[in-house]
Amino acid sequence: MATIRRCNYSTMSIASYLRLWLRFFYILHAVDASTAAQAKQVYIAYLGHRSSLDPSRIEAEHHQMLAAATGSDVAAKDALIYHYKHSFRGFAAKLSKDEASTISRMAGVLSNFPSKGRTLQTTRSWQFLDVEKETSININPNSPTSNYYLWLKAKFGRDVIIGLLDTGIWPESKSFQDDSLSPIPRRWNGICENGSQLNASHCNRKLIGARMYVKGYEQMFGPLNITATGEYLSARDKDGHGTHTSSTAAGNFVADANTYGFGNGTAKGGAPRGRISMYKTCWPVLPNPEGDNSVCTEADMLAALDDGIHDGVDLFSISIGNSNPQRIFSEDAIAIGAFHAILKGIAVFCSAGNDGPTAATAFNLAPWIVTVAATTIDRSFPSPAILGNGTVLKGESISPYKLGDQFYPLIFAGSAGMDNTDASQCLSSSLDPVKVKGKVVLCMRGQGTRVGKGREVLNAGGIAYILGNSPSNGREVSLDAYVLPGTAINADDTVIAQEYIRLCRNAQVKIVPATTVVGIKPAPVVAAFSSRGPNSLNPDIIKPDIAAPGVNIVAAWTKANSPTGLPSDHRRVAYNIISGTSMACPHAAGAGALLKNIHPTWSPAAIKSALMTTGKLVNNLNQPITSASGKEAGPFDFGSGEVNPIAAADPGLVYDAKLKDYLLFLCKVGYKSSEIKLITGKKLSCDPKPPSISDLNYPSVAVTNLKKFKTVTRTVTNVGSMGTYNVTVQAPPGISLEITPNTLQFGAQGERRRFKIKLRVSQSSKGKYVFGSYTWFDGAHVVRSPIVVKSR
């Protein structure tokens, strides 16, 4: 632990004061779409496989079911919100509990569940991932002086179509220019839907599709208030989130992209020659004083997934989360849509959530989804805060505003509240202007938004703002373009600053203007906010699957919103720096798009396996990747490691999974044979007893109820050259682990080999998780799988 100096520059330990300041918690409010007071609400009836029925016959079937439940054809028509008819069968309708119960009892209905609301969860990041290794900086990929390695092999993701469910897109951004792109693939069936300030003319060879889905939202919250929100009744992006994620996944090359000069460089997506189709499913909720309250209803999202599969997207990137506890797969709209997507060969990437570092907070848990955690990159924006006693706090900031090169009065917000109340978190109208005017204010991270705290300081007459982080954030700070001079400091430095203020009657501080620095070590680090495992639904499937850059990412932004998102902030930027697993997801999806182009016949499971088994485990100091707390990261933090696109392009072996694998998984988690036939249209007997969940041909292994011993099986497919693979084992503590055979011989691509993993308890873990791994190696390819075990 660091020490601080007294006001007279002498040095003292702060150990005796730690207990005073180590109790700050970061609280995120999830949006629950339904309320008990509603007489009717939106339900989603999922009927499973579409078969060969004509869409009009499917609609007629839905209408008959609704008429029987509501009592008349007119009532059925009024209740209906969406038909799901292209890729699977189902409908969304506004129903009473009794009507919903009636439909639930009808033959052929797999599930009928309330539509809930879900929440939203790069100039250097791709270079940090080694996707671009250029001998000269040149944004023209056709230049003979460029040396882009993986990008050239993947043709820059050419013609791979990425569908995003998000807040929309700002089509005028340079990231979506269609320079050097070939004509739109003929297989594309999507449209650019006409709406408010967006029509077909705004689409091009980069942005080839744009649709909006608002019916579910409006049934839940009433008609969209365009006047109050400034929203567009179209796929145009008011918020900025969707523009950011789209450009991260597949934005074109844009030179000199930056936010107020910070992070300057060439912006680009993972698949810069790929195509984008935006499915706008997320809308603002009022009252919205902080400017960050958006909701994405499941009814709308399922309609978007149904259309996207039919439109012809090659993969989905979905940076949308869910509140805990997680619902079973047949009552989870994203899981349902994703399942039908993978049946069509469409990989689905989803964010893991921003509720970390608390355990068992990860969502998007279906085994057919690629669930993505967030990590840092090797770039920072240092803006030190120098205390009056000479102590330097390692602040970071992207505020464009600067204080003079001198010391200013410093106070803690906790002692500056109205009527002497605790205002430490600088929430709206909490600060006393008499106490704050002309001072720099230290506010604590917690409730409310980071940018909203800065605004509160400014409104109260403060001249600058320091954001203090709690122990749960560890060494990590998230940055924002504050509306006044400001910087953010880590948890240790926050304790030092608070103690300095407590001891010094006339505390002062100087804030050094921010700069951009690259090459920061260690990197990557797993973000504190990134949601963690274990899997709260099926702990024998490890989640998250993989990690990707998600902290302080530079990407395109809307011109309809400020960089802070605050309604009172009228600034505009072309590129913004934000953080979240929302930013990590399109990084992984962009990498997946490159693999799709290099290996067009690979299944979604093969793409997922390649990314997982080649994940990076060490940082740029060649040491194990850590979490923000400084502890070594494990499978519940970052799955199989950080995405490594170059290695993933040539993984050697993959753990492929076919439809039957997932159906046996559904059997094991409780679905009946009759239900599985409805889901897929195929017969599958769940008797005799199906294999355990641990036997799913997954690229990682988890056994969480190990009594004495257990054997699980895996099958690998050779996607490299002929050769021999030998296995090495790092057994979890207290577990004896044997793999047979321990050598696999391959004579050609496509050959499959099966092996067994025998686990035996040598010393009980007493209900705690222990971790290990096994790795196949042929002299060139490293194919690693993490192992998680919990024994009695």
Automatic annotation (TrEMBL):
It comes from the Eukaryota. This is Uncharacterized protein.
